[in-house]
Automatic annotation (TrEMBL):
Function in brief: Catalyzes the reversible oxidation of malate to oxaloacetate.
Active site: 187 (proton acceptor)
GO annotation (BP), single: tricarboxylic acid cycle
One family name in Pfam for this protein: Ldh_1_C
Protein name per UniProt: Malate dehydrogenase
Record-linked NCBIfam families: MalateDH-SF1, PRK05442.1
Cited CDD domains: MDH_chloroplast-like
Recorded family membership: Belongs to the LDH/MDH superfamily. MDH type 2 family.
Domain of life according to the entry: Bacteria
Source organism: Paracoccus subflavus
Presence of keyword Cell membrane: no
InterPro entries the UniProt entry points to: L-lactate/malate_DH (IPR001557), Lactate/malate_DH_C (IPR022383), Lactate/malate_DH_N (IPR001236), Lactate_DH/Glyco_Ohase_4_C (IPR015955), Malate_DH_type2 (IPR010945), NAD(P)-bd_dom_sf (IPR036291)
Binding site for substrate: 92, 98, 131, 162
E.C. number(s) listed in UniProt: 1.1.1.37
C-alpha cells in the first residue's frame, strides 16, 4: 500500500470542515487506494469540538483514514504535510470594520505562514479557503519565504462551479460539457465570471445563449451574490458547496483536469497586467500535479473594466495589510 498522505486542515471545528473532513477521509482528494492522515488545527477553545468531529470520523470506519492528529499548534498541524486546507479564519464580528477584519486575519496568516515554512514538505499543495481568501493566501506565502510561492493558492472554485451550473441551465446543456469558463480576481462580489471563451462541445456558449444582457445583468451579479442568497434562504452560509469546491480544487491540482479549464487563485507574476504579487483568480489547466495558467488571451473593453474593478479591490486589501508583508 502507498505511504499515507498527510493532509493538514485548519478551522477543523467549523462548519465547512464538518462537510470537508468526511470527504477527505473518504479520499475524494487523491482518489481511491491512497491512505490519508488528517492533521487538524483549531484554536485552544475549540479542541473539544474537534474531538467530537473526530469521534464521528471514527464512526464512519473509513478504510483509508489511518490516523488523525488534533492540535492547537500550527507547526504540529503542518508537519510533513503533503496538502493543506486553510479554512479557519476570523469571522467579522458585530461592528467590526473591514480593515480590522483584514488585519485580524493577516495576523493569523502571518503566524501560520511561518509555521508552514518551518514544518511542511516543500511540495505541499496549499489552498486558502478562509476569507478574505486571496489576501490571506498572499500573506501566508509572503511569510513562508522558503516555501514555493506557486504552491500557495486561494479558492475561487466555488464561484466557478456556481457559474457553470447557471450557464448550463440557461443554455440547456450538461454542466460537464462546459469548458473554457474563467473566474477572475477576488473571491468577493467584485469577482468576474467571464464567459468570453466558454464552450459547450466546442460551440461558443455566448453564441448559444445569445443574450449579452443576461450575462452582464443576471449571470455575473447572481454568481457574485449567490453566497448571500444562500444565507437568506438557509439561515446559514454555504458550507457543503464550499467544502465540495475545496475538494475539487485540490483533486484537480493533484490528479489533473483532463485539459479543461478551472479557476484558481494563484500568485500573479504580472500576467495580463494583474499587478505582481496579488493572489488572483485566473483560468488554469492542471496536469501531473501542476497548474498552468491559461496564456495568450486577449481582452475586450468590458473584460478590462471588470478586471480593473477586482484588481482595485485586491490592491486596497494589500494596502490595508502592507505592514505584515
Ligand atoms: P466557522 O466559523 O464555522 O469555522 C471557522 C473555524 O476556524 C472555527 O472552528 C474557528 O475556531 C477556527 N479558527 C479561527 N481562527 C483560527 C486560527 N487562528 N487557527 C485555527 N483555527 C481557527 O466558519 P466556516 O463556515 O467553516 O467558514 C470558514 C471560512 O471559509 C470563513 O472565513 C468563510 O468566510 C470562508 N469561506 C470561503 C469560501 C470561498 O469560496 N473561498 C466559501 C465559503 C466560506
Amino acid at each position: 500500500t502507498p505511504t499515507p498522505k498527510r493532509i493538514a486542515v485548519t478551522g477543523a471545528a467549523g462548519q465547512i470542515c464538518y462537510a470537508l473532513l468526511f470527504r477527505i477521509a473518504k479520499n475524494d482528494v487523491y482518489g481511491p487506494d491512497q491512505p490519508v492522515i488528517l492533521q487538524l488545527l483549531d484554536l485552544p477553545q475549540a479542541q473539544d469540538a474537534v474531538r467530537g468531529v473526530v469521534m464521528e470520523l471514527e464512526d464512519c470506519a473509513f478504510p483509508l483514514l489511518v490516523d488523525t492528529i488534533i492540535t492547537d499548534d500550527p507547526a504540529t498541524a503542518f508537519r510533513d504535510a503533503d496538502a493543506a486546507f486553510f479554512v479557519g479564519s476570523r469571522p467579522r464580528s458585530k461592528g467590526m470594520e473591514r480593515r480590522d477584519l483584514l488585519s485580524a486575519n493577516a495576523e493569523i496568516f502571518r503566524a501560520q505562514g511561518r509555521a508552514l515554512n518551518e514544518a511542511a514538505k516543500r511540495e505541499a499543495k496549499v489552498v486558502v479557503v478562509g476569507n478574505p481568501a486571496n489576501t490571506n493566501a498572499m500573506i501566508l506565502a509572503a511569510n513562508a519565504p522558503d516555501f514555493p510561492t506557486e504552491n500557495v493558492t486561494s479558492m475561487i472554485r466555488l464561484d466557478h462551479n456556481r457559474a457553470l451550473t447557471q450557464l448550463a441551465a440557461k443554455a440547456g446543456v450538461a454542466v460537464d460539457s462546459i469548458d473554457r469558463l474563467a473566474v477572475w480576481g477576488n473571491h468577493s462580489p467584485t469577482m468576474f465570471a467571464d464567459w468570453t471563451n466558454a464552450t459547450s462541445q466546442d460551440d461558443s456558449l455566448s453564441d448559444m445563449i445569445g443574450d449579452d444582457a443576461w450575462y452582464r445583468e443576471t449571470l455575473i451579479p447572481n454568481v457574485a451574490r449567490r453566497g448571500i442568497s444562500i444565507i437568506e434562504a438557509r439561515g446559514a452560509s454555504s458550507t457543503a458547496s464550499a467544502a465540495n469546491a475545496a475538494i475539487g480544487h485540490m483533486h484537480d491540482w493533484i490528479n489533473g483536469s483532463d485539459g479543461k479549464w478551472g479557476s484558481m487563485g494563484v500568485h500573479s507574476n504580472g500576467e495580463y497586467d494583474i499587478p505582481a504579487g496579488l493572489m488572483f483568480g485566473v483560468p488554469v489547466i492542471c496536469t501531473d500535479g501542476r497548474y498552468e495558467r491559461v496564456e495568450g488571451l486577449t481582452f475586450n473593453d468590458f473584460q478590462r473594466e471588470m478586471m480593473a474593478r477586482t484588481i482595485a479591490e485586491l490592491q486596497e486589501e494589500r494596502e490595508a495589510v502592507a505592514a505584515l508583508l
